[in-house]
Specification:
The protein is an all-alpha fold. Helix content is about 80%, strand content about 0%.
Length: about 100
Amino acid sequence: MELPPWLQQAIQARLDEVSARIEHDPELSCVREEKDEAFEGLFAGKDIEQTPEYAEWESRYIVSKGIENERLYMQGLRDGIQLTVSLLGVLTPEEIDTKA
């Protein structure tokens, strides 16, 4: 089933928004700084892939990307659940409390 263009655009806009928020996340800035410092250490050695600095950078890069991907996934999951609930017209516990 093909999604309507307006829905594809809405999904893309949400993905862009969440990606930008994660990119500027203060918690990740420390991890990114450590990764960048480790990357700078790469250029001190001649055989870059055999240096401990490369292993350090690679490790920090993998951790950084893992955290970013996990946050993107979880936000996507929350958005998907919220969209499903909205489309089905199901009331959330917060909405039930407000209407009561």
